[in-house]
Write a structure and sequence with these properties.
alpha+beta; three-stranded antiparallel β-sheet; two-stranded antiparallel ribbon
Length: 78
């Protein structure tokens, strides 16, 4: 796939947006959030521990997404 300047700018904007959003979530004590990436076809689950977010897992098609916050919660990603 060939990248254009526009797609690079879009990726930079998205990175900045996610960074600012993560700081807001940390500030207000959001315990978990998910990033859905349709291009990569994956869902990243991040959890708030020890004052910052860390990645709990990356889930793709054919896997079962779980949440450490929601005990027993599972989604089959088929």
């Amino acid at each position: 796939m060939r990248r254009t300047n526009k797609s690079i700018k879009d990726e930079e904007w998205l990175s900045i947006f996610r960074s600012k959003l993560m700081k807001l979530y940390e500030k207000f004590g959001v315990k978990e959030y998910w990033i859905v990436d349709p291009d990569e076809k994956e869902i990243r689950v991040l959890t708030f521990k020890e004052g910052k977010f860390s990645e709990y897992g990356r889930f793709k098609r054919g896997e079962i997404l779980t949440s450490p916050l929601l005990e027993g919660f599972m989604i089959n990603l088929d």
